[in-house]
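Write out the 3D structure for:
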Amino acid sequence: MVMFTVVRKETTPIEGQKPGTSGLRKKVTVFKQPNYLHNFVQSTFNALPADKVKGATIVVSGDGRYFSKDAIQIIIKMAAANGVKCVWVGQNGLMSTPAVSGVIRERTGADGSKATGAFILTASHNPGGPHEDFGVKYNMENGGPAPEAVTDKIFANTKIINEYFIAEDLPDVDISVTGVTCCNGPEGPFSVEVFDSSVDYVKLMKSIFDFESIQKLLSSPKFTFCYDALHGVAGAYAKRIFVEELGADESSLINCVPKEDFGGGHPDPNLTYAKELVARMGLGKSSPQGELPEFGAAADGDADRNMILGKRFFVTPSDSVAIIAANAVQSIPYFASGLKGVARSMPTSAALDVVAKNLNLKFFEVPTGWKFFGNLMDAGLCSVCGEESFGTGSDHIREKDGIWAVLAWLSILAFRNKDSLDGEKLVTVEDIVLQHWATYGRHYYTRYDYENVDAGAAKELMAQLVSLQSSLSDVNKMIKEVRPEVADVVEADEFEYKDPVDGSVSKHQGIRYLFADGSRLVFRLSGTGSEGATIRIYIEQYEKDSSKTGRDSQEALAPLVDVALKLSKMQEFTGRSAPTVIT
């Protein structure tokens, strides 16, 4: 049996290692700097309770992006040196973020151990490659992202760190082959178990959904399906679930081979970056030859985000979570006894609010960040939740789950079509959305992203929006000069959230302008990029009259867009005449 020794290495603090909601994200070139990853990992171990490290089992895997394999070996050797007893690694280092959450919550090792946490190596929807993005985030015992109390402690540790521990003489583990590698160190046995995480994930999905009913839908010659993993980690699960379990044709899968650079693309499932799927579904500039698929979906790099499409039809993420909530009890066995409650992030449209009110469900509006949903779920207050940035999920885990969302939609389609699979026409994605609007009204909604804006200019823009809120009469005067038909602003604030579970208060979570007719403008700085700032503008208008719910979204929202650009002085502050992405 291999014996290893623990080496203490001297180091010095490195600036800028503050983890956000989604962990620490920087360019690969930054992470490759001497001691950069080592400092952050040791600072994390130092921030955790001793019993979550010494003698514990942890997970180390990610979306397979460039530098992941090197990082996994480093973290394994540091885990061994810090007294961890066992490390679980997905085969080839691949494990989606939702699968990691599920493994922490559900999996039991051969010795009966459960994982106490995980290092997830991902920068989510950001590009990958030698000069692109890498990230590390730590998830806790409940399967959810580390709370602020922990990430603040990690950051504090990075500012004072002077040593780290590593088992340098521990040989690299072959993570391409499943099996257990055992060795001994100063504190006793240490092992690394490499396993196929798709087995655990499929088992979890089969405990939630009626795979037989979905299989009947997919076997219908009238129903065609297309899934695009954008060369992210979802590809490691797609064939297993959609082809082997549900019987979809393998030609239904595109870009389902995980690649370190995501095939040179941007693994963000939206209308801008999922170009091949968008074209195949008839939403591109030119329509493809032949019959279009009835249903299409895409995933991001770490498979926690999703995009849902019908034939020539885009489902907004805000509508998606509302429709899943409205149909969950009758369509998905896991929810057969009812929903405990629903929640959305503040920038997400109020479509879910209307469903909650109609179905008499507990409803929560939270800041952006999945940990807020996790608190509600741990307290038994929330079953289904979502955010406008293509994240949807439920209390089966403590992360958003892209494949879960696709299976939820397939379940709804299967339920709606259970008596019409032999008929002339299937109920389509578009039919379901139109029926939903007829019942609940439509929230016209769009998001403008201005990416890699100068951080200083972005902060000035946001400060100016806050200062405007001191005089709503002046705001309304500005609005009438631009678009007289737009309703008055009746309330404006910076969103603040008091967590009903732990009482913590989150301030400065976004700038809101609320209009008399129920319309909203929301402005936020996003923390998901690796450099610069991303300014996001969320534009929403509610229309209850079913005769007016069929307008083109951008046309319907044009007046509010003009108002948003005027109030923010976007071009003046940033020099940008157009957003990077519109969704």
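The CA atoms of residues 179 and 352 lie 45 Å apart.
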